[in-house]
Amino acid sequence: MLFNESVRIALTALLANKLRSALTMLGIIIGVGAVIAMVSVGMGVRQKVTNSIASLGSNMLIVSPGSANSGGVRSAAGSNVKLKLEDSDAIKSKIKNIDYVSPTVSSSYQIVNGNQNWNSTVQGVTPEYMAIRSLVVSTGSFITQNDINTRNRVAVIGTTVATNLFGTSNPVGKTIRVNNSPYKIIGILESKGQSSMGQDQDDVVIVPLTTAQERLLGITYVKSINIQVSNANQMDQVQNEIETLLRQRHRIFGDKEDDFSVRNLTSLMQTMNETTTMLTLFLGSIAAISLIVGGIGIMNIMMVSVTERTREIGIRKALGATFKNIMMQFLIESVVIGVIGGLLGVGFGCAVSLAIAKIGGFNTVITAAPILISFGVSVGIGLFFGIYPARKAALLDPIEALRYE
Questions:
Q1: How would you class 68 by CB atoms within 10 Å of its CB: exposed for 0-12, middle for 13-18, buried for 19 or more?
Q2: Cα–Cα separations (whole angstroms), residue 56 to 218, 219, 232, 239, 335
Q3: In angstroms, rounded to a whole number, what is the distance separating the alpha carbons of residues 307 and 321?
Q4: CA separation for the pair 353, 38 (Å, rounded)
Q5: What is the average pLDDT score of the chain?
Q6: Residue 374: Cβ-neighbour burial (10 angstroms; 0-12, 13-18, 19+)
Q7: CA distances from 165 to 118, 137, 144, 194 (A)
Q8: pTM, rounded to two decimals
Q9: Model confidence pLDDT, tens digit, residues 175-192
Q10: Model confidence over 384-398: pLDDT tens digits?
Q11: Please, are residues 98 and 238 in contact by the beta-carbon 8 Å criterion?
């Protein structure tokens, strides 16, 4: 029996029982669709986390005060006042393989424009902060070294602050009040959206570091030091050198605990990627269970088909059909169910993924890998679960089959 003829007979048999064939395919359709949809959700989470961490800056190290034991109680990172501007200058001058260093301070204030007000985070930074955090000024300009030297009352604001205080008008050149002092707006930042922790990165007011220290906060220390390393492969080396330098400057010797902490965002990104990859695999594995259920449905319907067509099988064998011919016929029928169900499942899964993104406002990413794998598995399941029914049909005794009513 020719292969083309076997395919034609398989399609004829399936079309003869349209509803039963459709219900059999339903398990495969739901299985493939669920795998694609769940994996796309997992990939969307991974992409969002990766983009969020990347938006903080590339090859970035953050030095924070804290993590020191005081009276048996561990202080939270950022709660101590151990970091000085001189520490930042020492890192910049003595550590190699560093592109930019920017000490920062921050605090929350009510920002006022006329009769409009908005509570936001005010950050004091240096010009290098723009390159470290990959910030882009959409209108106006960023803080300059001259602003740092003269402690100018100038500010660069995020889009959230601009929208809430000025609506649709251009705020550049206008004045806002921070802690009852006037600050001239010199620029607006391009939107960066939410961070992986759900924080609005556009809800920020940036002022010169010296202005924030002396005019706003009245402090001489810094709350963090942001560092951009030249090469990602040198992150660990630079981190170790910074830790050694700061221990020397802070006179920390032997087993005495550091009064600062250094966070490596590259390591954080790798950890988060590993976590989200496990989440994606977990979601895909759960969805794949329905593929197994669909395969059992194929086996069940093929067993029924063998029973219903026992007399037909007997006639074919009496006319000369071999074991191989009968096996091929029924295997092709089960594989056709898997192929058609897989194709419909791919369309269903992509549609569900797009619906989740549009209706639920959730980020989803559709890639070729889960589509090809789930489709291949659906075809494989059709073949695997069709072997036993096909073999049972091929082993039927032609005389007994012809007697079957």
A1: buried
A2: 27, 25, 15, 17, 50
A3: 18
A4: 8
A5: 82
A6: buried
A7: 7, 18, 24, 20
A8: 0.57
A9: 999 988 999 999 999 988
A10: 888 877 787 777 777
A11: yes
